Amino acid sequence: MLVYLGLGSNLGDRAGNLGAAVAGLERAGVDVRRRSPLYESAPVGPPDQPWYLNAVVEAETTLAPRELLAAAKAVEAALGRRPGPRWGPRPVDVDILLYGERQVDEREPWLTIPHPEMWRRLFVLLPLRDLRPELRGPDGRPIDAWIRALAAEQPVRPAGVAWRVDT
User: Fold this and answer.
1) How does pLDDT run across 37-91, given as a tens digit for each residue?
2) Is 81 considered catalytic here?
3) How many other β-carbons are positioned within 10 Å of the β-carbon of residue 145?
């Protein structure tokens, strides 16, 4: 199945954390095919935290949605993510954005695909557009229209750093 995963980090070696997340996902059965450029974004939650480094990866997997979520959570834990405040600082965050054309809405434990916040987050849409420029939002508008609508209110910029993929 072709999937798109959002990655973010704002603690420690942010680029190294994202690279380690990709390596961990690959060990879990997620074949990362393409990576977006890296972007920096202001935090959405508490303001007293460092800016995030964000990216989106395109991957193939045979994991079912729930298994993919478990793999993502295991990667986060292995890289030091612990329970904390919502939208608080973290070494890494891995979100399932798209899982083919499937829609998933499971309340216990929580799993919603497409990711319910993705169309409201410029730090997701910019790197996603790098990989899927033809993508259309839930209302049928192209991804560029969504980006234009969010650009004035959400600070996101190209990171100016390269991917570091650790194995």
Assistant:
1) 999 999 987 878 999 999 999 999 999 999 999 999 999 999 999 887 777 789 9
2) yes
3) 13
95 classed as catalytic = yes
Catalytic residue among 14, 31, 48, 95: 95
Report field, pTM of the whole predicted structure over 0.85: yes
Please confirm, yes or no, whether 93 is among the known catalytic residues.
yes
Selected from 4.10.230.10, 1.50.10.20, 3.30.70.560, 3.40.50.300, the CATH number assigned to the domain covering 2-116 reads: 3.30.70.560
In whole angstroms, give the CA distance from residue 71 to residue 65: 10
The residue ranges of every structural domain in the chain are 2-116
> What is d(CA 38, CA 160) in angstroms, rounded to the nearest whole number?
8
Q: How do strand 39-41 and strand 156-158 relate by DSSP bridges?
A: antiparallel
